[in-house]
Amino acid sequence: MYLKIHEKDGQKIVAACDKKLIGKVLTEGNYHIDLKKYSDFYKGKLATEKELEKALEDFSSVNLIGEKAVGVAIRKKLVLPHQVVTIKNLPFIQLYRI
Prior knowledge:
98 residues, 20% helix, globular
């Protein structure tokens, strides 16, 4: 999966996306995710699940899409399975720490 950490003004945004999803455009209902136009937001380095787990130890917000990426957040108990949004049968979550 791809992992990219954005840091600005003391905020840390963790973005991760299953590798196979980069370049796709997903639309369903009110949801629209353009992983072609905005691939740079997610496309950092190729990372393992353990690397994503470590990145999720400290964040201001999180954007994850794909079974692998969202699965890490579920295993870390950052989100419950019933809270995950699916777009074209792909899991997607956004989390914010206030």
